[in-house]
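User: I'm putting together notes for a lab meeting next week and I want to include a structural view of one of the chains we've been expressing. I don't have a solved structure, so I'd like a prediction I can at least talk through. The sequence is below, exactly as it appears in our construct file.
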Amino acid sequence: MKKYEMFQENVKEGDKITVVTQGSLGGVTVSEMVYISSSPSDHYYNCPQDMRGVTLTFKPKGRRTHCKMTVDYITPLIVYRGYVDIDADSIVFLTCGNAKISRYGMHDPRYFTEILEKYPKGIIFCDIPTSDVSLSDIPTAKEATK
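Assistant: Thanks for the context. Below is the predicted structure for the 146-residue chain, given as structure tokens.
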């Protein structure tokens, strides 16, 4: 099932949701919002149905204005019911003294596998197309510092 259909079937207008997706630099983006609507978005002109993403219209938490956000067909996506306080920095970075080290490379699906492991409650749906990594492949903090 594609992202647009998932939003149409599982989220209603006025629902408070937390959307976790991949940022343009390959990290994790967490957006708390009040869902308004969604529409299919073409990846390019005349693209086939299976390559369509979704454009979300929403109101960010604590704001009055409407915003739009586009999620491509290949971008990982996790949607939670309600506002979930997800600490993205603890998932993306490993702190060693005063320095922050990235746990994985850019656009790594293990970020999303780790989010699913740490925050399993309240998931409406998730779509991680590049997820061929099992939960046992995630290195521990000791392994990452070696």
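A couple of points you could mention at the meeting. The mean pLDDT is 82. Residues 3-137 form one domain.

User: Perfect, that's what I needed.
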